[in-house]
């Protein structure tokens, strides 16, 4: 017996247990890489600023 198809939006299915935790899907590889590059850029700016001001 197959389950009815789940909605494509982020809403839980109607028969979902409200006590069961819901998790977000993992980020795509491109989005994760963008966040890593942003973090590295911010770290470089902080270090360069510290070197410049010292």
Short description:
Keywords: Membrane, Transmembrane, Transmembrane helix. The protein is built from 1 helix and no strands.
Describe this protein's structure.
The chain is mostly helical. Helix content is 46%, strand content 0%. It contains 1 helix and no strands. It has one helix at residues 29-53. The longest helix has 25 residues, at 29-53. It is elongated and about 65 Å long. The mean pLDDT is 81. The chain crosses the membrane at residues 32-53. Keywords: Membrane, Transmembrane, Transmembrane helix. Residues 1-25 are annotated as: Disordered.
- What is the beta-strand fraction? under 5%
What gap, in angstroms, lies between the N and C termini? 69 Å
Helix % is 40-55%
Uncertain segments are none
Radius of gyration based on Cα positions: 21 Å
Please give a handful of descriptors for the protein shown:
mainly alpha; 1 helix; elongated; 54 residues
Question: Which helices and strands occur, and which strands form pairs?
Answer:
Elements: H1 29-53
């Amino acid at each position: 017996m197959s389950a009815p198809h789940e909605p494509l939006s982020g809403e839980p299915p109607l028969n979902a247990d409200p006590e069961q935790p819901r998790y977000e899907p993992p980020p795509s590889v491109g989005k994760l890489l963008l966040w890593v590059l942003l973090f590295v850029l911010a770290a470089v700016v902080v270090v360069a600023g510290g070197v410049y001001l010292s």
